[in-house]
From TrEMBL:
It catalyses: 5-methyltetrahydropteroyltri-L-glutamate + L-homocysteine = tetrahydropteroyltri-L-glutamate + L-methionine. The gene is metE. Residues 438-760 form the Cobalamin-independent methionine synthase MetE C-terminal/archaeal domain. It comes from Nitrospira japonica. GO terms for molecular function: 5-methyltetrahydropteroyltriglutamate-homocysteine S-methyltransferase activity; zinc ion binding. InterPro entries: Cbl-indep_Met_Synth_N, Cobalamin-indep_Met_synthase, Met_Synth_C/arc, UROD/MetE-like_sf. Pathway: Amino-acid biosynthesis; L-methionine biosynthesis via de novo pathway; L-methionine from L-homocysteine (MetE route): step 1/1. This is 5-methyltetrahydropteroyltriglutamate--homocysteine methyltransferase. The keyword Transferase applies. It comes from the Bacteria.
């Protein structure tokens, strides 16, 4: 009897109807009680466990559920609670204070949140644990143990999920100041006993398997991190009476960390064979006879239906090499990163739906694959369906557009270059625009007020007729232009009132994109995103923004910037097709945008901004792969923007504050003007641009748009003057850090008036 196990590494926790989001937000706004929130959470857990049980999952994850974030849960579990939160007595209030800050006017409580950052190369964000120089730990396993008790009623093979100690420390940071060169890894010896105690408690509960997530095993590790792994894994493996341990790696290949993982003394190793299929042979070859392999074959990062035949072939290979009893089938990583259930999609169409699998469907795929492990030629219905869907998708005219193929083949070197190099262009642009020194502008969006959002909602619902909606948007745009003129800005924008989201807006107008109704994925805490699905060749049936930009331009003599989202950002914030390289999809998007850029120019728009806020987050996890990625990312931007005349000014915008290691690529993008976020790092990062001698024009953000605070003219003038001392004043622009859509009009007007004043002050100095 074959006994390949069907397993799961983690399940989405937001709920099919985003129940968790709603429960969290109503608790935070004090509309409901903590008990209500806990009840909702418990209901979701119960539902997810029984779903997995029904799907026939043999190893059901427990403890992966979180009210906010699993890394924060781990910090709380090991007692890594920074001193400033310890005065908060209620554990739940303290937990959310760490996650999102706490401001209680009555009690004089005002603590900011811990830092938050991207979880590897996903769009999920985790809370960064903060350790003190005299950090001690104390185990509080109540959350995990409580959930195990709850789950016991489900009666499945429960597999608690722990974030492993080394990844936990590698993701942590030291508190500010007085830490004397200590790094979090220095606390490994104190941290390991928490895990040892926990394993003993889990053994007492009769737990058979524990999953220890160590995604950092897929990164390039220095010697210190490797040594930490050796210590941690050996010590955990040596725990007396412990449950069996599965070491979970995901998001990439183990590569030179394979010996560490295989030599860990653990009972199973999970590998990501979606991201890194080529590692299978090496993994099977390295596995000691005592170790199981967990084959991550169902994509936990994307929404496509699994090619069951290909996955089956991989399982057969493993079974033949090491025997069925040592093989498990699994998703490539936790299913946290995919939407909950395809069954809720009514509008996608049956063809499209037959190509997709969300979390619920992926569980079934895992089970089917495990069941078929003993068969050489599986022929059950699920395999027949998978084959049919695959054949249909491969041959579908929805996917391939010969016109796009032709254009892709027609791409030549010349399409990546502007006519003249920057200095010549700059001269022509100066002559054309005659802008003052320190020209002032904004990043694109202006406040999306309640009125704007509700007009959009009624238009979407069909209750606001299209001409009325149009009229409303034009009125908003007109008022926005008038306000910008009154403030005295030099270069204007139309305000982006017609856009809900900077990717969705374009995706909806491009061919090759589909939209789900309920394909929500957690981004952080209660925040969810609904990425578009890029399923086919991308093309642009009609102009997308020309009408808005030209309308705005008719209202003013000052230049109005056209406003587009860049190809890498559109790619990065979508679910991307898996039947061609990502870079090909990116170039297709770039070709479509190129047409838009050229159309804007022809319609009389003189400056065009192509936002690329996501270029940095697309960087591969391993540095070795950066160069290749940056090559095609830069190429895509250039392809999109190089079709215009020398005197048309191309802008770009990026909102992050780490540039040092990718500045060369940013310079190669060759935008005439780049606006960047700097105000939060007090313009320190301009240093990078100075060191690199960034050649083109640059607008360092002079105020933080993330806060309603109105910056003074003096502080912004100071920033500009200090920028003018390190970079040529003739190449500096004045703008906020990012778009203003989340702000209110009064503060925006006040802040921009001060900004314009600050530019005047700076002009007098140079
Ligand atoms: N033009 C966009 C806006 O102003 C840019 C947003 C972004 O950088 N994320 O909203
Ligand atoms: Zn931005």
């Amino acid at each position: 009897m074959m006994s390949v196990l069907a397993t799961c590494l983690g399940y989405p926790r937001i709920g099919f109807e985003r129940e968790l989001k709603k429960a969290l937000e109503s608790f935070w706004s004090k509309k409901t009680s903590a008990a209500d929130l806990q009840q909702c959470a418990a209901g979701l857990r119960r539902r997810h466990w029984s779903l997995m049980k029904q799907a026939g999952i043999d190893h059901i994850p427990v403890g992966d559920f979180s009210l906010y974030d699993q890394v924060l849960d781990t910090a709380v579990m090991v007692g890594a609670i920074p001193a400033r939160y310890r005065a908060i007595k209620d554990p739940l209030v303290r937990y959310f204070a760490m996650a999102r800050g706490l401001q209680e006017s009555g009690e004089g409580m005002d603590v900011p949140a811990l830092e938050m950052t991207k979880w590897f190369d996903t769009n999920y964000h985790y809370i960064v644990p903060e350790l003190a120089s005299k950090q001690t730990f104390a185990l509080n396993a109540s959350k995990l143990l409580g959930e195990i008790d709850e789950a016991e009623t489900t009666g499945g093979g429960l597999r608690p999920v722990l974030l492993g100690p080394v990844t936990f420390l590698l993701l942590s940071k030291m508190e500010q100041g007085k830490t004397k060169g200590l790094t979090p890894l220095a606390f490994l010896d104190q941290l390991i006993p928490m895990y040892e105690q926990l394993l003993a408690l889990l053994a007492e509960k009769g737990i058979q398997w524990v999953q220890i997530d160590e995604p950092c095993l897929t990164l390039e590790l220095d010697d210190q991190a490797k040594a930490a792994y050796r210590t941690a894994l050996t010590r955990l493996a040596a725990c007396p009476g412990r449950p069996r341990l599965l070491l979970a790696s995901y998001f990439g290949a183990l590569e030179d960390n394979l010996p560490l993982a295989a030599g860990s003394g653990f009972d199973a190793l999970h590998v990501d064979l979606v991201r890194a299929p080529d590692q299978l042979d090496a993994v099977l070859g390295a596995l000691p006879a005592t170790m199981h392999v967990s084959l991550g074959l169902v994509d936990g990062r994307n929404i496509w239906r699994t090619d069951l035949d290909a996955a089956h072939a991989t399982i057969r290979k493993a079974v033949e090499m090491i025997g069925p009893d040592r093989v498990m089938v699994a998703p490539s990583c936790s299913l946290l990163h995919v939407p909950v259930d395809l069954a809720g999609e009514q509008k996608l169409g049956s063809t499209m739906k037959s190509w997709l699998a969300f979390a619920a469907q992926k569980l079934n795929e895992v089970r089917v694959l495990a069941d078929a492990a003993g068969s050489l030629t599986p022929s059950g219905q699920p395999f027949l369906d998978s084959r049919a869907a695959r054949a249909n998708r491969l041959a579908s005219p929805m996917v391939r557009n010969s016109h796009v193929g032709e254009r892709m083949r027609g791409i030549t070197e010349a399409l990546f270059r502007r006519t003249s190099p920057f200095p010549a262009r700059a001269e022509r642009q100066r002559a054309r625009f005659r802008l003052p020194l320190f020209p002032t502008t904004t990043i694109g969006s202006f406040p999306q007020t309640g009125a704007v959002r509700s007009a959009r909602a009624t238009w979407r619902a069909g209750t606001l007729p299209v001409p009325d909606y149009d009229k409303f948007l034009k009125e908003e745009t007109r008022a926005c232009i008038a306000k910008q003129e009154a403030i005295g800005l030099d270069v204007l924008v139309h305000g982006e009132f017609e856009r809900n989201d900077m990717v969705e807006y374009f995706g909806e107008q491009l061919d090759g994109f589909a939209f789900t109704e309920n394909g929500w994925v957690q981004s952080y805490g209660s925040r969810c995103v609904k990425p578009p699905v890029i399923f086919g060749d991308v093309s642009r049936p009609c102009a997308m923004t020309v009408e808005w930009s030209t309308y705005a331009q008719t209202l003013t003599k000052r230049p109005v910037k056209g406003m587009l989202t860049g190809p890498v950002t559109i790619l990065q914030w979508s679910f991307v097709r898996d039947d061609q390289p990502r870079q090909d999809t990116c170039l297709q998007i770039a070709l479509a945008l190129r047409e838009e850029v050229v159309d804007l120019e022809q319609a009389g728009i003189k400056m065009i901004q192509v936002d690329e806020p996501a270029i940095r987050e697309g960087l591969p996890l391993r540095r070795r792969e950066w160069k290749d990625y940056l090559r095609w990312a830069v190429d895509a931007f250039k392809l999109a923007t190089s079709g215009v005349r020398d005197d048309t000014q191309v802008h770009t915008h990026m909102c992050y504050s780490e540039f040092g290691d990718i500045l060369e690529a940013i310079a190669e993008m060759d935008a005439d003007v780049i606006s960047i976020e700097t105000s939060r790092s007090r313009m320190e990062l301009l240093g990078d641009f100075v060191r690199y001698q960034y050649p083109n024009e640059i607008g360092p953000g002079v105020y933080d748009i993330h806060s309603p605070r109105v910056p003074t003219k003096e502080e912004m003038a100071d920033l500009l003057i200090s920028a003018g001392k390190v970079l040529p004043a003739t190449r500096l622009w004045v703008n906020p850090d990012c778009g203003l859509k989340t702000r209110g009009w009064p503060e925006v007007q006040a802040a921009l008036r001060n900004m314009v004043e600050a530019a005047r002050v700076a002009r007098r100095q140079f």
